[in-house]
Amino acid sequence: MGFFDIFKSSRSSSESSSHTSGGMAALTASRTGGYDRRDVLLKADAMTTEIIALEEALNAKEQGKPYTLPEKAEDKPLKTVRKGGFSEEDVDAYISDLEKKIAELRAQL
To answer: Rounded CA gap, 56 and 49, in Å?
Structure first.
């Protein structure tokens, strides 16, 4: 699954169902309400960057090389919008999946 595969458009403004793709939650656009798209993308990017840094540190540890524990991504609350955001339910599920992945990687270091 590529990074952009998490974004799906919804067909109606009342539609707000969670989708999964490859075990991770996918995001649907909401015509009314939802989380601010920019905030969601920034948070997802920060968390994905943290995951990559943790995976690199874990690889270094497994090879017996020196590594540093990456800093945690800043956990800022997401702003909501009146229309055109991402479904709150989908975003919450996706962020939860990323948090679980981060916790698993940190536990291995």
So the answer is: 11
